[in-house]
Amino acid sequence: MAPITSICVYCGSRFGRDPAYSDTARRLGHEIARRGIKLVYGGGHVGLMGVVADAVLEAGGQVAGVIPKHLQDWEVGHNGLTELHVVDSMHARKQLMFELADAFIALPGGIGTLDETFEIMTWRQLRLHDKPLVILDQGGFWQPFQALLDAVVAGGFADAKIADYYSMVADVDGVFAAIEAAPAPSVPDHSEML
């Protein structure tokens, strides 16, 4: 795999009830900066988004935020980033975040985080990219997501190979090993993409 120079982190615009979510976001941000990798994220200063961005910045790293204009107008954008891209829509935001990143990490978050995670998995299934996705399962947060994917496979709506489109790890220490070990996507036949 080519060297990872930028990582997109999907995460909540809220902190969540468990303080461990913020601690994990902070540790991840510090590790991203320590490795000299640029953070790409949703551009907000709120919730876990703000925590991970601030952690990268305080550790001397670079951060590229991508935020839709309507959210910037609501004053939730982070004004202290290395670069901030203001785009016209949520669709444009996700596209640019995808283009700027070599890999993806999903932290706990709300329906926006779920949307981003599912979409990047779908794009991999459709062979639109071969970038790794690591789901950081802090405190078991992502276990219902895993159960849903298992049910999708058990119900015959997806092949078991969808497990190749992501790695799930329990802590920050496992994230970068999972990125390095991420399998290349298999070449699906047409029926697997439906």
Structural overview:
By secondary structure, this protein is α/β, with parallel strands linked by helices. It has one domain: Rossmann fold, CATH 3.40.50. Helices cover 42% and strands 16% of the residues. It has helices spanning 19-34, 47-58, 69-73, 90-100, 111-125, 143-154, 172-181, and strands at residues 6-10, 38-41, 63-68, 83-87, 103-106, 133-136, 167-169. It has a seven-stranded parallel beta sheet, sandwiched between helices. Helix 1 runs parallel beside helix 2 (47-58). The protein is globular.
In short:
The chain contains 7 helices and 7 strands. By secondary structure, the chain is of the alpha/beta class.
Number of helices: 7
User: Could you describe the largest sheet, including whether it forms a barrel?
Assistant: 7 strands, parallel
Question: Unreliable segments (pLDDT under 50, ≥5 consecutive)?
Answer: 187-191
First-to-last CA distance: 28 Å
Q: What is the CATH third-level topology name? A: Rossmann fold
Helix content: 40-55%
What general form does the structure show? globular
Tally the beta strands.
7
Mean pLDDT across every amino acid position? 93
How many domains, as an integer?
Answer: 1
CA-atom Rg in angstroms: 16 Å
Strand order of the largest sheet: 4-3-2-1-5-6-7
**What portion of the residues fall into strands of 2 or more residues?**
15-25%
Return the CATH architecture: 3-Layer(aba) Sandwich
